[in-house]
Amino acid sequence: MTGPMLTYQGEPMDSSPQALGELRRSDDAVENRSELHSRMREDGYLFLPGMLDREEVLAAHRTVVERLAAVEILDERHPIEEGIVRADAQLSFMPELARDNEALDKVLYSGSMMSFYEFFLGGPARHFDYTWFRAKTPGTTTATQPHYDIVFMGRGTKNLYTSWTPLHDVPFEMGGLLVLEGSHELQALRQSYGQTDVDKYCENEGDAESIVARARAEQRELTAEERQSVRWNSTGHYSGDAIETRRELGCRWLTAEYEAGDLLVLSMFTMHSSSDNQTGRIRLSSDSRYQLASESVDERWIGEDPPKHGIRAKQGMIC
Questions:
Q1: 8, 92, 118, 190, 230 from 148: Cα distances, Å
Q2: Is 8 exposed, middle or buried (0-12, 13-18, 19+ CB in 10 A)?
Q3: Would you state the pLDDT for residue 257?
Q4: How far apart are alpha carbons 277 and 140 in whole angstroms?
Q5: pTM for this entry
Q6: pLDDT digits 0-9 by tens, 43-100
Q7: Domains along the sequence of the chain with CATH
């Protein structure tokens, strides 16, 4: 893979062929359901360049930058379409940019997107009502931390998929999505971290707060196992370090230079992250979820006012 050096939280990422590669394209298979399924099983993702209507995506981008300009996130000395950020702006996650956004809904929840999922899933599809929206300003503090999606939305069907949709062209140095090659096949990881529910906690023992409190009372450092439990249950992320995650799990990070109209589909057990945005522009993308309408759905993400990760979503257990 050729391109500029990627960084994570300011640290250079290993760019050797053993550590970094490019996503496999599957736009040659969009009309072959069995081949799409085969590649999803093999790769844990489908990279579909040009799957969506580029002009519709750019129209959605326009609505978002207009909203950012209205709250003075963008540098007014530049055209808003360029997405140049004010020097003092720092953002990462802004779901409010997706609310009541007809142009974005058209991209995510109608047309080519829904047609693809109905074809891929083999029946009527539904989407979550909540839209995750990323607004990644430049710098070393906004990169997405490595994680599986299942730990955030695993209370319904596991036959659930994420669409990562960039709203503009995303060159390497802008910090597009990274996929950890083969991470969906790491059975030990699936059976440990992959069984986590970020909104469940032990009422009698084992939850993050009680682990930390017990260690403090005993005036000792957390054990490696306790640190891992606290990390997974308090944030949902596998790690706060994409560089160390690759070293630990022994897989390559895969990425691409994305363009408006591209679609990246992920399984629930595919580890992903992002690199730093090394440009002066804001990186805008959405995460949306899709499943068969006939299968059970995670109630945390459904309705006009979904519970999300609030108090209504918490479930206590006896461990």
A1: 18, 18, 24, 9, 16
A2: buried
A3: 97
A4: 7
A5: 0.91
A6: 999 999 999 999 999 999 999 999 999 999 999 999 999 999 999 999 999 999 999 9
A7: 7-183+241-310 (2.60.120.620)
